[in-house]
């Protein structure tokens, strides 16, 4: 795909591209927003370098793509739509340290998320993204047929309970195979971070199928690994990707901000 206002250099044949020619610190034109929508649809996650943002400018970037959705965990006092992501020598857990799709426990999970990191460890702290398009396409036809029509429960307590055991977290049911609302492509829509069980199966069968899917979707051939630099940005399509924040830098500091963008619809079966 060609773009009028930017370039997008793929990082792998399957997923991920670095975008150049866009200054996210400034308001975006309609043409830039349209090109970024196209790049996101094509590459599933797009990356930017040398973008010195703050909570206000990060919110402005996100609002070009839709209303901002508040996270289940608290945001900043002055900017509740912005979540601070910070890990240091006092951290017992970090956000996203296992494979997940953001807030799939919500009735309407976010369309996408934008993460800006200003402070990085000397080495480590990468984020890995996996394509659920590629994961679905690699299934056998018989397995695709078997999974069609099944639904799964996504429970926020699985991901967030370790941060606040007394929190009131959303629970939602979504199709195991969903259709992407923009591209129409089918994706696997379960993830280790939030998915507790498949509703139409016994616990034994559900555990076995989810174990297979989680292992299958984490295949290295479906992935891109992003090495952060200070003032980098990642913008991922939450409807067709997993991601994992690699916590290999303890006790060093890694810090930044994140917003997530509302989706207009609940996930629909393929």
Automatic annotation (TrEMBL):
MF terms (GO), sorted A to Z:
metal ion binding; taurine dioxygenase activity
**Keyword Metal-binding carried by entry:** yes
Q: Respond yes or no to whether keyword Metal-binding is given for this record.
A: yes
The membrane spanning regions, by residue number, are none
One biological process GO term for this chain? sulfur compound metabolic process
Domain of life, source organism: Bacteria
Q: What name does UniProt use for this protein?
A: Taurine dioxygenase
InterPro entries membership: AtsK-like, TauD-like_sf, TauD/TfdA-like
Q: Which UniProt keywords apply?
A: Dioxygenase, Iron, Metal-binding, Oxidoreductase
- Identify the Gene3D superfamilies for this entry: Clavaminate synthase-like
Q: Which residues form the TauD/TfdA-like domain?
A: 8-255
Q: Which GO terms describe its cellular component?
A: cytoplasm
Enumerate the PANTHER family for this protein: ALPHA-KETOGLUTARATE-DEPENDENT SULFONATE DIOXYGENASE
Q: Which family does it belong to?
A: Belongs to the TfdA dioxygenase family.
């Amino acid at each position: 795909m060609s773009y009028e206002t930017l370039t997008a250099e793929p990082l792998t044949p399957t997923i991920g591209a670095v975008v150049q020619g866009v200054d996210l610190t400034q308001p975006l034109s309609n043409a830039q927003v349209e090109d970024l929508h196209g790049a996101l649809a094509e590459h599933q996650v797009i990356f930017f370098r040398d973008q010195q943002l703050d909570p206000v400018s990060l919110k402005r970037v996100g609002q070009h793509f839709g209303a901002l959705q508040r996270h289940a965990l608290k945001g900043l006092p002055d900017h509740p739509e912005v979540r601070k992501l910070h890990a240091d020598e006092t951290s017992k857990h970090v956000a996203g340290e296992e494979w997940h799709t953001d807030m799939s426990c919500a009735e309407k999970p976010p369309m996408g998320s934008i993460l800006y990191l200003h402070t990085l460890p000397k080495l480590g702290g990468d984020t890995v993204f996996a394509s659920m398009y590629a994961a679905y396409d690699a299934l056998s036809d018989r397995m695709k047929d078997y999974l069609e029509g099944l639904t799964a429960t996504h429970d926020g307590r699985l991901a967030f309970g370790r941060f606040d055991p007394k929190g009131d977290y959303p629970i939602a049911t979504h199709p195991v195979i969903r259709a992407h609302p923009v591209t129409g492509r089918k994706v696997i829509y379960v993830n280790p971070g939030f998915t507790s069980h498949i509703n139409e199966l016994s616990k034994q069968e559900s555990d076995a199928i989810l174990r297979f899917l989680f292992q299958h979707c984490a295949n290295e051939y479906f992935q891109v690994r992003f090495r952060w630099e200070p003032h980098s940005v990642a913008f991922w399509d939450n409807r067709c990707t997993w991601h994992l924040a690699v916590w290999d830098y303890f006790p060093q500091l890694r810090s930044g901000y994140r917003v997530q963008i509302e989706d207009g619809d609940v996930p629909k079966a393929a």
